[in-house]
Specification:
Helix content is 66%, strand content 6%. It has 716 residues and is mainly α.
């Protein structure tokens, strides 16, 4: 059985009459006054049963026609569907096609009224439409039968090949709805709610669309699960209302039309300007923001502006927090009598976690501007625009979103970035994307770069942050090119990207998104970073120096204090020198110090001393720990200026200076080396194989080290 679907007035009934002639019967569906048409078509000596579905604009239960159409599709399960479209208004008619694909129906597109469309100056690139959608498409004129036989033959062949089922299309509906769908789909699957007829994700989607018929059927089947699904819908609905002043149904429609728009503008309609003569604001803005030349220039300007404003504004509260943590450390040190506990609190917790929390104002400002870009719809344009560039390097245009999420426009995280690669259909392009997104300037790397750039490139902080971000992009793309030409070879697949309309971001939405992300950063500092800081402090504090060395130092200090020939100032200076030497010895003799010194003969090629080695090893757990470790190392390694901000200690360290090749090599290594521990686990989860996890770990380490050595040797 083959079904005919289409919008009202698309010519579907004309096509049905041409196929069946007098071989049809008309009646009503049982119990309802919706017309039911069935007939028989002759094709190559065979009789093909055809069902003419009621004309509908969608498959959501807003009308009886829509309920009937999808019930026939799901329960009677035709072998394939011929979707009849008015070629003159593809942007509207393809909306039903998208829903048929989401339902997992094998479909063929019959582009009807092609003669009228061409008379209006519309040119449809059929081949391009097939490439982007993966669907067989046929230009037709139903009133004289042109193209209809070819469409029917293709539908019959597709029905025989697919057995009536294909993998459902999964469109991204934005972060909020995607998260809800990922939470709801397993509930539907486990409870087997309507899954005999519909894909589980489709059922979850109907809940978000407030589909009364599906919700009622689920209530009868399993009230408990229905209640859980409804609770999730209510939560996300409230969130969308408070952040974007919209609701799930509107968001879903926007993203579907965005998907359609991206298809049509990607070479399907060859004279877009004529077809969309009355372009709305989004179309007019896109002529600039997605232009081949102007678009990338605007993107670079936006990225530079983001860093410029962040640094110019954020440096003030950054200084205030540094002063606060110095004061707080001094107060805690004075209140705690136990040397061990005082060292843990001041040198481990406050110096470590405080160093990370000090960057909260800058991170918050950055998240604020990123939220504006996301809520306005600009991020989707970046993805669409970058497709041409990504194809050069063997990546898919859809790879851009994982890159952006991971920190392509700084402040992201590689963990959700790797997970976002699920939208890529090609396993090869997906794997190449998974392995390269960790090169982005994630939010965990930003404090490291802000610290060193603020110390050594004070006059051009924004420019240098901007250039390091571009360096991450360049590294990711070049590595992707190498991978796609060697160990991950494969054919490129077409790119379709949903382009939601531009919106003016709501102030409340921007504030909520900013606070949510900032809280995640703070929570990480107060949990994961705190735990790692304590471990690193312990590794840097024990086993200490031998008892004989301690007695020797005590004897030296006692001798200086008893020397009547020395002034009080001279005594203080000599004792301070001995104590500094003692603290340095303690750190060098610690477990972490021993490991750092063990690696130093090799890492010295890149200009890394043993303290730097310790910090970078800690960064494998979480990149913020690089700051934590440096703060602890400076706190434990010296008693001089112990309350000074970390940036002042780094500025006064002879190992680092404004023209030091060591600094540049360190920053290049930090940008490129191993993903953090959590990201490595997610790479295993998404790639399905441990070998790619170890590849990401060791390949990135090797690449980063070679790049750092090159920088050191060239600049040093």
């Amino acid at each position: 059985m083959i079904a005919l679907a289409g919008n009202p007035n698309s010519g579907k009934t004309t096509a049905f009459n041409h196929y069946t002639g007098a071989r049809q019967h008309v009646g009503n569906y049982p119990g309802i006054t919706v017309e039911k048409k069935e007939g028989t078509a002759h094709l190559d000596g065979r009789n093909i049963i055809l069902v003419d579905l009621p004309g509908t604009y969608s498959l959501t239960a807003y009308s009886l026609e829509e309920v009937v159409a999808r019930k026939v599709l799901a329960e009677e399960r035709p072998g394939a569907v011929i979707d009849v479209l008015n070629a003159g208004v593809l942007n509207r008619n393809l909306y039903l096609s998208v829903q048929l694909l989401e339902l997992g129906m094998p479909i063929v597109l019959a582009l009807n009224m092609m003669d009228e469309a061409e008379s209006q100056g519309l040119k449809v690139n059929i081949k391009r439409l097939e490439e982007l959608t993966g669907i067989k498409c046929f230009p037709c004129v139903a009133r004289n039968g042109n193209g209809l036989t070819d469409a029917l033959r293709a539908a019959v062949e597709l029905a025989e090949e697919s057995k009536g089922r294909v993998a459902p299309l999964e469109i991204s509906y934005g972060n909020d709805l995607d998260i809800a769908l990922k939470e709801m789909t397993p509930l539907v699957e486990d409870a087997q709610l309507l899954t005999d007829f519909y894909p589980a994700r489709w059922v979850a989607l109907k809940f978000l669309e407030n589909d009364a018929e599906v919700m009622e059927r689920c209530q009868k089947a399993n009230p408990e699960v229905r209640e859980k699904l409804t609770a999730i819908v209510e939560r996300v609905t409230h969130h969308l209302k408070s952040t974007l002043d919209t609701y799930p149904e509107a968001m879903i429609a926007d993203y579907r039309y965005g998907w359609i728009s991206s298809v049509l503008k990607n070479g399907v309609l060859e004279n877009v300007e004529e077809v969309f003569a009355r372009a709305d604001f989004s179309d007019k803005a896109d002529k600039v923001l997605t232009h081949r030349v102007a678009g990338p220039l605007v993107l670079l300007a936006v990225l530079y502006f983001l860093y410029f404003v962040t640094i110019e504004i954020g440096n003030y509260p950054l200084g205030w927090l540094e002063t606060f943590f110095g004061w707080f450390s001094d107060k805690v040190g004075g209140a705690v009598s136990s040397p061990g506990l005082r060292s843990l609190l001041c040198d481990g917790v406050i110096a470590g976690v405080g160093g990370v929390l000090g960057f909260v104002p800058l991170i918050m400002i950055m998240f604020f501007f990123i939220s504006i870009l996301e809520d306005s719809g600009y991020m989707a344009r970046v993805a669409y625009m970058m497709d041409r560039i990504f194809r050069i390097f063997g990546l898919h245009g859809a790879s851009i979103m994982p890159f952006i999420i991971s920190g392509g426009i700084a402040g992201g995280c590689a963990v959700p970035g790797v997970m976002a690669t699920r939208t890529l259909r090609s396993p090869k392009e997906r794997l190449a994307t998974i392995l390269t997104v960790p090169f982005m300037m994630c939010g965990a790397k930003i404090p490291v770069f802000l610290l060193f750039v603020g110390v050594f490139f004070n006059k051009h902080q924004a420019l240098n942050m901007f250039l390091f971000t571009l360096a991450g992009w360049a590294a990711a793309l070049l590595v992707a090119l190498g991978l796609r030409r060697t160990i991950i070879k494969g054919k490129a697949t077409p790119f379709v990207m949903e382009l939601p309309p531009y919106r003016v971001p709501l102030a409340s939405g921007v504030v909520i998104h900013t606070l949510e992300r900032t809280w995640q950063y703070i929570k990480k500092a107060g949990t994961v970073i705190l735990a790692i800081s304590i471990l690193i402090w312990a590794a840097m504090s024990y086993p200490g120096v031998p008892a004989e060395k301690e007695k020797e130092i005590e004897t030296q200090v006692a001798a200086i204090e008893a020397d009547l020939s020395l002034s009080a100032e001279d005594k203080a200076a000599r004792i301070n020198e001995i104590e500094n030497s003692d603290e340095s010895s303690r750190l060098a003799n610690s477990y972490a110090g021993r490991l750092g010194r063990f690696l130093e003969p090799v890492t010295s090629l890149a200009g890394f001393d043993w303290q730097t080695n310790i910090a970078l090893i800690g960064g494998v757990m979480a990149k913020e720990v690089v700051i934590t470790t440096l703060g602890t190392a400076y706190a434990l390694g010296s008693v001089e200026d112990d309350d000074a901000p970390l940036k002042d200690k780094i500025a006064n360290d002879p190992h680092w200076n404004a023209n030091s090749a060591n600094t540049m090599a360190f920053l290049v290594f930090t940008l490129l080396y191993s993903p953090c521990f959590v990201t490595l686990l997610v790479i295993k989860q998404e790639s399905g194989k441990w070998r790619w996890t170890f590849f990401s770990l060791f390949f990135n380490l090797a690449l980063a080290f070679l790049a750092a050595v090159a920088v050191k040797q060239v600049l040093g």
